[in-house]
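Long-time lurker. I teach an intro course on protein structure, and each term I like to show students one example going from raw sequence to a predicted 3D structure in token notation. This year I'd like something fresh instead of my usual example. Would anyone be willing to generate the tokens for the chain below so I can use it in lecture? Attribution to the forum is fine with me.
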Amino acid sequence: MRFIAAIGVFVLAAVFLGTGLTQKVFFSGPEYAALSTTVEPPTLYTVINGDVLKSHPGLQTVTAGGAEVGFIGYGRTADVLAWLEGSDYDAITYNPKTQELGSQRVVSTVNVTATDQASSGVPAESITTTPIVNTIVNPAGSDLWLGERVGKMNVSLPINADESMSVIIASDGVADAPAEVRLSWPIPNQTPFATGFIVIGGILLLAGLFLLIWALMQMKNRHGPKRRGRITRMPKAPKPSNRRRIGRTAAPKILPPAKGRRALENRAVRIAIPVGLTLALGLSSCASGFQTGRGDVTATPTASVALGQEVPLPDVSESQLTRILASISETIAAADKSLDTTTAATRLVGPALNIRSANYAMRSADGNVAALPSIPASPVTFLMPQATSTWPRYVMTVIQDPVDPTVPTTGLVLVQESPRENYRVEYSVTLEPNAQVPEVAPATTGSAIVSPDSKLLLLQPNQVALAYGDILLKGDASPYAGLFDGATDSLRTQIGLPYKDAKRAAVGDKASLEFTQQIGSGESISLATNDSGAIVLVNLNEIETIRPTETGATVNAEGQTKVLAGIASSTTGIESTYGIQLAFYVPPLGSTDKIRLLGFSQGLIAAKGL
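-- Reply from a regular --
Happy to contribute to a lecture. Here you go:
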């Protein structure tokens, strides 16, 4: 029976393997649908919009060839067109009737000259003639793209774009873009069970081999010697009787069908083959409606807006910000190592750049000066992008290490001035240990920017810096002291009125120490919270001036001031400027809450002799 079972399993394996291989070879069809075109003559850039990308279902693979260096990137259509403003480009088109790709030249109207207008017969008043000079021409590395790839000769990029996205193809912005463009989409598998049949057939084949080997081993053991030991003579068999019985031989009895385990084994072998054939044929016909073209797709209802109403999208997505922060962290780490302000300026601006440039200058003059903390790239625990389709754009984010509590929590504010510029860090602050950030809109929705002179907050954003600076100078005597919460404000204990009084006392009578304040180079940036308040970032410069009060007396420079100013003493005075970056939560007008300090950073940014 083991041989019969092995044969049955072999037959089932042959059925499954044969069915799977037949489907793979004869019924699977092509794996991809592909369209291609050649742009003649090519220009610097080529664009494929979302309608062309979605002309076939499924994920898209874009391939560009024909140029020494190729670049493919994709992002929101509005961002792609904004980056291309002022430049001509070729738009890839799709003809649904012929199912062919083509191309169409798009000329930028912002760079049309008066001569071009006259030759085209277009009235001068109908065309904008203000030229745009784009200093950045290479799209590679732009923070606008959701994904990109650069290569030589042939470049391919698999994407999952929808109708709101577009692809941009270029070389290096100087040479023409690759002329050969190919789009491909995977075709749904027409034989979804072929691989399963082959796998099941392989498993049954191995099972059949196991049963066959087992049966052979059992047969070998059964035909071996039954008894071992000394051989003895067997007694003679008795002789049969010579008497013959005469009579009717009884008819053989008809045995009933076998019962028990052996009957089940025999019956299983007889049933296994037709059942296997039926199962194989039945499964091979169970393709889904989508794959056979007979199914109906039911759309899932989604939220919609009123017709004609444009909802601004957030500046960046979480995955996009992750890539941006990684690039910023890598660039700043390289600049910190080489003390290169020019490199740092590609990813820093305003107060964040000022404090780092001063640190580079001091470290170049004195190797004992400590470096500033690096800008971390992850993990992002808070993301607050601006929802807008214009520039400049702002993003607030918090990076916190949940494992190591000794690593300070860093808050960053990124700004992108124009489509062809990358995001740069304008504010980098260390959050207060007990800082409570109010609830904000989801990152997928984005937040609105608050005007610097908004009167809907407890204090206008452009007045917050000097109001807080007045508290640092006067303490509780400041008229603004009642607007700010000082319970968790650690900066007041560091550079507030008690600190300044102690420092004035240490100078003595032979010199005078004066503290003044002014608005720094950083702009006031505010993003709205859900309670109609705002998170406000401001920059305050505090100027410390020491002068001798007696004729012939000198004042000495100390610490970092001595290194940055390059002088040890002065008979006229020394001026030190400290840059302070401040993050506040400002509640809405009429609220009983107070303005809270969320985080800060400070450092020497300038020093000189008077």
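Some talking points for your students: The chain has 14 helices and 19 strands. The chain has a mean pLDDT of 83.
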